[in-house]
Amino acid sequence: MPGTRMHAIDSTLSLQPHHDGSPAYVTGPSVPSLGDVLRLRLLVPEGAATPVSVWLRSLRDGEPHLEPAGEVCGGATRVFFEATLPMVNPVQRYRWYLQYRDTEGVHHYRWLNAAGLHRRDVPDAFDFRVHAGHGTLDWVKESIMYQVFPDRFANSGAEKPTAGWMVGCDWDTEVQGSGADTSRQFYGGDLPGIQDKLDHLVSLGATVLYLTPIFPAASNHRYDASSFDVVDPLLGGDAALVSLVASAHARGLRVVGDLTTNHTGAGHHWFVDAYKNPGAPTGEYYYFNADNSDYEAWLGVPSLPKLNWNSAALRERFILAEGSVAVRWLKEPFNLDGWRIDVGNMTGRRGSDDLNHEVARMLRQRIEEVKPGAMLLAESTSDAAHDVPGDGWQGVVSYSNFTRPLWQWLAKDPDPEAFKWFFGLPQPGPARIDAADFVATHREMAAGFSWEVRLASANALDTHDTARAASHTIDGGQEIAACAQFTFPGIPLVFAGDEFGLHGFNGEDSRTPMPWGQPEKWGKDLRPLYAELAALRTNHRALVDGSLRWIVAEENLLVYLREHATGSVLCVLARGVVPETNLGHAVRLAGKPGDVLTSVGEAPVLVVNGTGELRVSASGPGASLHRSTANVAWT
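Below the sequence we write its predicted structure tokens.
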């Protein structure tokens, strides 16, 4: 294509026009309503070619509408284009259309949507979007979550009853990882033990304790609940939960529970009453055959019968009634602060039934009536974009736009003899990708989220359902990944043991009991790093709701900017050696190049050349965070 500046726009991230849903680029009511008008801005960075014309394309009642955008003052080094967006529909979609003229006078056109800049027509699926009528409280978006698997976190030493499913294990015994007894191994962690360790969470900077299920069950993971009416006596019972939540609240910690809206256990009294009993009232809660002798189970696992959300009685008992499952535990005396919904992507879905959005909306509305501002996150094991239209789940715990691509970028060479399964794929570990593919994957997988949903979604390095990041990434990879986790839009979700650099080759193996006071079992003591990253996120608003603008994504190097009117943060991540790379004038540091907010590993080196351009290099894996002077305040 003629014109070097046009070529630079296509090939250089830092020179591409930028927009996202952050306050830096969208102004209007914090919770827009139908009929409101928003002001949107498009940034043309310093050194980039300026479009001769820009239009905002929005979908209004399904029909495209183009509105010219006007050029507004952006200071001496940058240009903004501005347009208005009326909220015509509950989910308002839009993208930008740009016209350029090259050095030979030829016109060229580009689309900019949430997946990036394009020289071709693009589908509406990747449009930017704004939701009307449903906001999420700041405390949710400001959260730093710490996940606890109760059986493996801490044992108070209290005497406990026994159950027939148990295979008793000593706390120092290695977790099996695979085999017939993995779900039956019992180590004796309990809620009083967690309460005794709350100061540990506070020291790491956590603001939310997330507990995997606490209801009685026939397994250590308790996703096969036998009742939703009581806390498992093995964990200390109802009184232990009341005490734990009160103690957490006294320390400024909120507590979120884990709820299975997709299934119960086969031992649940609703199911037991109805199995092979066609006249039982609770039979309609499940997908039974005519005589209730056979039933639909989650992924065919007989111990997990699937709930049938066509049942009005189930909706009443689970969500709508005053003493329903979802409501009761949010109220006195328990006072949970919200729910994480297990396999939220499968809830209400079975064959021709697709009630997922209906159930999510019902649950959101009901818990906000009972406890305004309560957290409601749904687990999604795949592309979650179609499940978050804004009026149901506030956000998702999703592996697709953060965890998986980050592991792939930081992947070490896989061990061919290792456990041959990675996030549902038949391979022994993540297949390595370069930085450009990481950015492309992240953008596409997050494109279907509004900015509000992105900020309310959780970014995990690993969880109780995955291997540990330390086991599958390069040496120092977990530290680099943690820097990304605390600097990306969304809620950092830290799985207990990450701060000790624990390893685990699969989900079961990652549930190793916490090795309190046993540093010989730690991979690395990362407590200072997690505490520092949490403090940075708390003290720099840019890391909560600042814009995310990509600067460089080349092989071993990722550079991005979180921009906010109160101050911006430059994030530099290197997975290996990086030859000196020119960032141009895209970023200006607030201090000297050697001034860092924090760094890990072989920290990338920043220098400013004689013309004021910023350059970066790295001698090995590492990361560094810096203050930036980028100012995106509205005029």
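Residues 437 and 476 are 21 Å apart (CA to CA).
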